[in-house]
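agent> step 3/5: call structure_predict on target 'Putative NADH dehydrogenase/NAD(P)H nitroreductase OL599_07980' (Limobrevibacterium gyesilva).
agent> reason: downstream docking stage needs a structural representation; sequence fetched in step 2, passing through unchanged.
tool.input:
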Amino acid sequence: MPLDTPKPLDDLALDVLFREARTHNKWLEQPVTDDELKAVFDLAKMGPTSANASPARFVFVRTQYGKDRLKPALSAGNTEKTMAAPVTAIVAYDPHFYDHLPKLFPHADAKSWFSGNPALAETTAFRNGTLQGAYFIIAARALGLDCGPMSGFDNAKVDEAFLADRGWKSNFLINIGHGDPAGLFPRSPRFSFDEACVLS
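tool.output (status=ok):
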């Protein structure tokens, strides 16, 4: 059933999703379950992508074996907090996402738009995979989890250790869990509307 006219979220929801949400560096000893990860994905996947292409792929590193494989790819500044996080999501994308378009976008021959145009396919996969990673962060916050998204790793090493057999490519990482406020830095400044926006 279609929703009625959308109403703005209340201040509590806006605080949880944006105003009070932070990038976490320390983690409480509280697990993140597989069911929680599935719930986050099932919410995040509803965000829009070009032609419903849905190129993002996720690898959830949560075992000691997985952490041991991930550790050599991390920069020094990201190692400790990542090893302590209950889960680290490798946000990746499938360069051949268009093979799935007959299923995901069945009302047009969308596969042909990308299969013969590698540059367009790569741009579309990276852009929309990044969008889906952002949706994942918002979905995780909405479902009571904290996130620590980051770069600062060797993509080639991550791809070799986790993704090569599937042909996926890594984009960025997200540590996931219940954040320890003791590890937060003061919030950094943000641009004002007038500094970053133009009305035309």
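agent> step 4/5: record observation. The first strand starts at residue 56 and ends at 61.
agent> proceeding.
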